[in-house]
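Take a specimen:
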Amino acid sequence: MTANRRWTLANRPEGKIAVGDFALLDADEVERELAAGEVLVSNRLFAVAPTIRNWLKPPSGAYRASIPLGGTVRGMAACEVLISSDEAFPVGARMIAMSEWADRSVIRPHMAPVPVFRVPPEMDFARAMGPLSLNSLTAYFGLLDVGRPVAGETVLVSGAAGSVGSVACQIARIHGCRVIGIAGGAEKCVRLVEELGVDAAIDYHGDNLSQRLAELCPGGIDLFFDNVGGRQLRAALEHMASHGRIVLCGQIATYDGSEPSANPLDLMKVVYGRVRMEGFVVGDYVARADEARRKLAEWLENGRLRVAVDLREGFEQLPAAFVDLFRGANRGTVLVANS
């Protein structure tokens, strides 16, 4: 019998997520014998990501397996193997994996819903989950492999002040593009321009989005990296250049609702504009993680890339950190250390 804290889903949220939708269980548990292919891991650092909101919905509305009421919340975590029944992941192996909001979890690395990303021995977890995180890898592969920017093109990024969007903005700039970011609030827009080198920023709270896009993109948008969806996607589609590309990375505008996404698009704009829209997930690129990490590290070291990390201390901070994402109260990648 060993103590193992768990954050569970207490209420099925309707509309805005709240701290009260979660419950902390702090009880002794019996550690069972592991089946072949299983490992027991210590969850050392948690990534708090908006996509978790999808898994809190009822089964009919969740895009991955819905977390049942009373079930342990899950998400990506930096883990270290404590006991192993998988020779590929011996005791001491370090990884970023889909785990639980718990001190310790049993996972099956070879059957994980998201491929496991190994963490090299020389890399600390804060770096692997911060500057070189899956969020940074998402921006890297989504922009370069799916979006394929060309120097001189106009690139628009929604959710531009977030952990994925801010990196996507900077990678586009590094590749010689003109970059416009959409963010919520004047302070975030100022940071995009003054700190991250974005050419222009649109405050979706205060600006007329369609009007500002017309002013800033008279020749149309060549590439739109979309983290938000909703009215921002609809507005961008109105201003896409012929043969433009839309990379669908996330749809955070629809996450905090109880109904499936209702996002009517004028798809004839896609037809007559010969616009390509493509979604992707970073797990498709697990075999190339080291390639992306090397390039991101190079840009970090020469000052061409900045990655903000919002690190919270304490397992008990997980729900509050998650709620902050939807309030816009974070700055960069939100991590919670299990201390």
About this structure: The chain has two domains: 2-130+307-337, 134-283. DSSP finds eleven helices and 15 strands in the chain. The mean pLDDT is 92.
